[in-house]
Amino acid sequence: MKNETPNKDSDLLTSCQDLATAEEALGNAAGFAQNKSQFILADIAGLLAKREALEVGKGQLSVYRDVIREVAGTGRLFMGFTRDVLKPRLGGQFSEPWKLVGFEESLALPDNPAQIQIALKTIQKYFEANPTYEVAALNITAVHAEALFAQLCAARGAGYNQEMVVGTLIEARDAASEKLRRRYRGFISEASQLFGPLDQRWKAFGLNLPGAQQTPDVVEGVIVTLIGPNAAAAKWPTTARADHYRVWRRVLNVDAEYIAIGSPVDLDFTIENLPSNATVDIALSAVNNGGEGPLSEPVRIVTH
Asked: Which stretches of the chain are DSSP H helices?
């Protein structure tokens, strides 16, 4: 059964930790040279460090984005006050003169920080050209517009810089992840030179035996029929990759778990010595040298 390289980093880290733990426990008896425990652990530590650095970077980016939203919100409020102050001069409906104050197509306030930033600079220029329209008591001035513009520029610039930092951290994380994947594949390759395809030592590392079959499918189509007060006959169709089967029984309100009662090679089995006046679930699993498949859907019978 093939040992696939885990796709998720979390699964990869767990699998590689299992490799390192087992290799260290077996020591020289395992025979590894290129993929010893200390090398695996170093690559694990590298990935963990890069993952942690990325999370810190993402957290900082979230902070910067909060700042952008806050500063943009302040700028938006300023735009609203400016609009209200200028309505007596420019009219209560949108017209071409309003474009000189940073409004496009309507008097609605923008939500996008980039649009707010542009509007603040436009308002600054408008009040510099028309200083008599400023209302210093309300801080509706070119100077305040310029200050808000500068704050938003700085906030957005810091956000962009942090986005680049996060992008670099993602690349570093991905590189560390790929390095650990290469380590995992290298371990499998070296193990293949040291162990036979059915050597049980593969299991010590949490790995599949390469020479073993893929575990069988779930058994489907199970039929169970009472053939006496305390006996039943079970039958089922062939299951892919099954070498033999295991029959399981669970008596409701008696057995906490299923109990194995037989391992037939054929496609039928007689179940005897069932308790009287009991509700019993019968299930099957298919088995080969690669392991055991999942339990089938149980069939419920009631004895007399």
From this structure: 9-26, 37-90, 113-129, 142-194, 201-204
CB-CB contact of 89 with 142 (8 Å): no
Q: Which domains does the chain have, with CATH numbers?
A: 1-212 (no CATH), 223-302 (2.60.40.10)
Pick from 283, 300, 290: which is nearest to 2 by CA?
290
Angle at 54 between CA 15 and CA 38, to 5 degrees: 35
Q: Does pLDDT of 96 surpass 90?
A: yes
- Rounded CA gap, 210 and 195, in Å? 10
Residue 302 has pLDDT above 90, yes or no: yes
Q: Is the pLDDT of residue 214 over 90?
A: no
60 and 162 in contact (C-beta within 8 Å)? Answer: yes
| Cα distance between residue 69 and residue 152, in whole Å | 9
Cα–Cα distance list, 304 to 92, 201, 222, 276, 279 (Å): 89, 49, 21, 5, 10
